[in-house]
Amino acid sequence: MNESLTFAQALSEFHFIRPLWLLALVPAFFFFRRLWILDARGSAWQKVVDPNLLPFLLSKTKHKSQRLPLYLLLAVWSLCIIALAGPTWSKETQPVQQRQDSLVIVLDLSLGMFATDFEPNRITIARRKILDTLDMRREGQTALIVYAGEAHMVTPLTDDSVSIRNMVPALNPNIMPVIGNNPAEAIAMASALMDEAASVNGRILLITAGIPQEQNNRIADALNHGRYPLHIIGIGSSQGAPIPAAGGEFLRDSSGQMVISSMDRNNLTRVSSANNGRYQDVSVDGADLESILAESLLRGENDSYLESEEEVELWRDAGPWLLFLLVPLCALCFRRGWVLQLTLSAGLIMMMLEPSPAMAQEPDTSSDPLTQTVAVGSAQPEQAPAAPPRFDWRAIFLNKNQRAARALENQDPNTAAVLFQDDSWRATANYRAGNYEAAIQDFSQGEDIDSIYNLGNALAYAERFEQSIAAYNRVLELQPDHADALKNKAIVEQLLEQQQQEEQEQQEQQEQEEQEQSEAEAESEENQEESEPQLDDEQQEQDQEPQQPQEQETPEQDPQDAETEDSQKNQRSENTEFEEDQESLEQFLRRIEDNPGELLQRKFQFESRRRLIERRAANQGAR
């Protein structure tokens, strides 16, 4: 009973992990049917011998035995496809391993991060860079430390990047209790944090606008063990920028001079190189993080992993066990004549897949598709309708660019635009397909004269005439005698003039319609004013008519109705009290502070006071 129950459970759980592979069975049965029909035509004797004599001259048993390889070919194909589909009916538990990769992000929150040499300011760019770093890290632990005059830990080493992301928007120099620039203390805190966690592959990422040179030796002392490389991303410029202050003013020093916060790139490079790290200027496209975190993104033989307490259940793939059934079938291939028959069958399949021969045509004497010219004023040649696509086995040996070039030759620019990986070729395909916006985007990536010229053509077809004329002017600056650019520029200027005339005519027509509408409204208002005195006279007559007094009788109230009214009043009073309680509860909840910035500010102030008390106690003990 238990075995039948287990079998029933397995049957109910049976499915395929990769079911799309089962679609490959369709061509298997198609080829089997096709080979069966070809084999059923028989030998050459059937064409010369009378059909009534064939049963006595040809051996049917031999003919049936010759079809056995076809059955085996279908069986082998089907078993391979089913194995690739991944049949399964049970799960297995596998442990989860976590890669030991620790990263401590150290953020500069000195007043210099308010400088505006980066839009909107440096601190905003730094916060975005932290979010990009969290998005790039798929595994490992991350911590966040901020510093100004003192260093404070925002989050310890954790794999919960969501908690760190929630804290990032609240980070700004205003939450720091002590003003200054003390990166050495923050780096020492980061090193100690990874030592406590026994990190094997640890690194420190410093995002700053500058390091005072007197801090270089202290940073080297904090990282003298050489276990954790120090990578730096600089946010700022060598020219620098003033620091905004309250009231629209800028920060000034004690002598009244405006403070200019500039970044010493050479010092940042020296510090990172001295501590086995890399330096990169901040970038928008993420190239800085790809360079700095390249080692952590790559897996190596020296990577260490920790066994996690979590476990995951995965479906057990039984497909490889089906391959053992192929061993006896493959052994039959050593029989005489079987390999030859299977080879001939494969040849017949290739012949059936051979594409139809292309019709000869005159050679194309045009130049490279990227440089051939198209007059804007003339209509584009209509493309012949493409033949229905057929499977071409030769395309298996071509890369995407080669297949795209073949599609472009076969008047299929839409397919070519999808396959091309080169910007200039993809722009040409989009241009021929009429996708001018996409062609404009791709042509804009090139700086050669052909790309600029074709950009002007695409802008012209997109009816962006002013930009098209600007592109032609760039071509003429590089090559003043460019005949096609001169011709197309003249045509586009005429089209632009026509467009402007049409817009002017439409504007004049619209103004005329608005003027007529305003005149009609004025006439209707005058007619309405003439009819108002008559309405006032009628209203006065109605007011002068005597009004008849109306007596109202108050009916006596039923006792049952009085009880119902009292119960309704009590229910309304209870509902009112409940609504008041709910409102007071909501007001109480709204008073609870949930601003991470204020919480961090109070936390840092408490830590700063505690450190001050500890330093005073230490000084008194030393005395």
Which outline best applies? extended
**Averaged pLDDT:** 75
Strand order of the largest sheet: 6-5-4-7-8-11
CATH homologous superfamily caption of the domain at 98-307: von Willebrand factor, type A domain
Low-confidence stretches: 1-5, 297-302, 352-391, 533-540, 542-557
Give the distance, in angstroms, between the N- and C-terminal Cα atoms: 86 Å
What's the total count of β strands? 12
Beta-strand residue percentage = 5-15%
What does this structure look like?
The protein has 623 residues and is of the alpha/beta class. Among the domains are: 2-90 and 323-344, no CATH class; 98-307, 3-Layer(aba) Sandwich (Rossmann fold); 400-496, Tetratricopeptide repeat domain (Serine Threonine Protein Phosphatase 5, Tetratricopeptide repeat, Alpha Horseshoe), CATH 1.25.40.10. It contains 25 helices and twelve strands. It has helices spanning 2-13, 25-40, 45-48, 54-57, 60-66, 68-85, 122-136, 161-167, 183-196, 216-222, 265-274, 287-292, 294-297, 319-322, 326-331, 338-353, 400-409, 413-419, 423-433, 436-443, 449-461, 465-478, 483-544, 559-591, 596-622; strands spanning 15-16, 87-88, 91-99, 101-108, 141-147, 151-158, 201-208, 230-234, 241-242, 260-261, 279-281, 305-315. The protein has a six-stranded mixed sheet, with helices on both faces. Strands 1-2 form a two-stranded antiparallel ribbon. Strands 3-12 form a two-stranded antiparallel ribbon. It is extended and about 125 Å long. It starts with a helix and ends with a helix. Mean pLDDT is 75; it is low at 1-5, 297-302, 352-391, 533-540 and 542-557.
